[in-house]
């Protein structure tokens, strides 16, 4: 009996120890969860990137709930957690959000974002906006950037061509900047990669790196959308941007870029040179309204009258319309096209004989 009593006491002691250990573990886990939960919530209430100058357009549809707005903002990288935003708004009795197209920055606090949605106005106005049109070459873009940096266009172009800087950008944007841009035949590694758009900046003289970063980010955002199609067609980013640049330089307001794209692909399939004048002018390093006969003889890998296939790299920046057309050419048998003198209307033909007849009708006779 005495042994049984001692055994029960030992069992009770062991049970108490087990209960104490389990209780301690539960307390530690609860404390850990509370600690990490507190830090997570605290972090979610802070701006995503306090130093960011980037802005993102977010369209808030009519009738959007706080939950759906939070999800939209989280998806676009404006806030860290949509659910935290929802409860922040609820606990602070904020309501009356307005639908519309907003520009938000990851540097904005939840309070600023909520105030913006309530007033329907931007909390921060851009100090300046920089517009880069489609079809520009790097030397022309450098002149636009020069107006806002305090640097000369020559200094900017030299820095953009600096191999060390380019290699750093390649590490930062591996999705678009590949070893292809380091080809010795290429004049400017970043030619064609600075996306044409209007950019807003929130400091008086942003660094060249920040400006170029905004433009490369926009290029990446556009290109990523077509990654599936590129993979299907076994087309590299460099080939896509190069083809798109040719289409962009040949296009006019009345031009169907998909038809121009089809002509280029049809010529390559037929083992014909592309014979596009903008590549000749790029080889010459001149901006001219008209290509002369002697220009076509320039000795350059960019001269598509001499060399078949795509040139070594892009000859200008291309908009998304041209990029999409480069991936989706029209289904035609056209091998030639020309822009009508005076109107810019484009005429297509399947044979050289037809092309020459159109040239006589729409260019030669009209010039005379």
TrEMBL record:
| Native source organism of the sequence | Lederbergia citrisecunda
| Keywords linked to the UniProt accession | Cell membrane, Cell wall biogenesis/degradation, Lyase, Membrane, Transmembrane, Transmembrane helix
One of the GO BP terms on file: peptidoglycan biosynthetic process
Is Protein biosynthesis included in the keywords of this UniProt record? no
Q: Which family does it belong to?
A: Belongs to the transglycosylase MltG family.
Record carries keyword Membrane: yes
Any Gene Ontology CC annotation: plasma membrane
Q: Which domain of life is it from?
A: Bacteria
Name the site position(s) for Important for catalytic activity.
250
- Please give the catalytic activity noted in the UniProt record: a peptidoglycan chain = a peptidoglycan chain with N-acetyl-1,6-anhydromuramyl-[peptide] at the reducing end + a peptidoglycan chain with N-acetylglucosamine at the non-reducing end
Instruction: Identify the coding gene.
Output: mltG
Q: Name one Pfam family in it.
A: YceG
Q: Which GO terms describe its molecular function?
A: lytic endotransglycosylase activity
Q: What is its main location?
A: membrane
Which compartment or compartments is the protein found in?
A: Cell membrane
Enzyme Commission number, as recorded? 4.2.2.29
The way it spans or sits in the membrane comes to:
Single-pass membrane protein
Where is the chain membrane-spanning? 21-41
Q: What is this protein called?
A: Endolytic murein transglycosylase
What the protein does?
A: Functions as a peptidoglycan terminase that cleaves nascent peptidoglycan strands endolytically to terminate their elongation.
């Amino acid at each position: 009996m005495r042994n049984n009593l001692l055994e029960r006491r030992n069992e009770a002691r062991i049970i108490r120890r087990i209960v104490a250990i389990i209780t301690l573990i539960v307390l530690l886990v609860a404390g850990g969860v509370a600690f990490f939960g507190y830090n997570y919530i605290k972090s979610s209430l802070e701006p995503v990137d306090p130093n960011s100058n980037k802005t993102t357009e977010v369209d808030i549809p009519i009738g959007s709930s706080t939950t759906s707005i939070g999800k939209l903002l989280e998806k676009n990288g404006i806030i860290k957690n949509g659910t935290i935003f929802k409860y922040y708004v609820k606990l602070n009795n904020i309501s009356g959000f307005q639908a519309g197209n907003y520009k938000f920055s990851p540097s904005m606090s939840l309070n600023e974002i909520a105030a913006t949605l309530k007033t329907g106005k931007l909390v921060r106005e851009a100090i300046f906006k920089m517009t880069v049109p489609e079809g520009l070459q790097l030397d022309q873009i450098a002149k636009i950037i020069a107006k806002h940096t305090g640097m000369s266009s020559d200094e900017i172009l030299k820095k953009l061509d600096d191999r060390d800087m380019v290699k750093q950008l390649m590490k930062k944007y591996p999705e678009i900047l590949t070893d292809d841009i380091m080809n010795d035949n290429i004049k400017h590694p970043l030619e064609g990669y600075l996306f044409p758009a209007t950019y807003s900046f929130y400091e008086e003289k942003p660094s060249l790196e920040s400006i170029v970063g905004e433009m490369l980010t926009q290029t990446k955002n556009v290109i990523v959308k077509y990654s599936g199609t590129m993979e299907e067609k076994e087309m590299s980013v460099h080939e896509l941007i190069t083809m798109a640049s040719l289409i962009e330089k040949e296009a006019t307001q009345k031009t169907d870029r998909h038809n121009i794209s089809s002509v280029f692909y049809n010529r390559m399939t037929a083992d014909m040179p592309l014979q596009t004048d903008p590549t000749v002018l790029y080889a010459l390093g001149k901006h001219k309204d008209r290509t002369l006969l002697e220009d076509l003889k320039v000795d350059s890998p960019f001269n598509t009258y001499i060399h078949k296939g795509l040139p070594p790299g892009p000859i200008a920046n291309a908009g998304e319309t041209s990029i999409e057309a480069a991936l989706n050419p029209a289904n035609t048998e056209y091998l030639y096209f020309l822009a009508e003198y005076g109107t810019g209307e484009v005429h297509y033909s399947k044979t050289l004989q037809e092309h020459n007849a159109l040239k006589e009708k729409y260019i030669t006779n009209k010039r005379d």
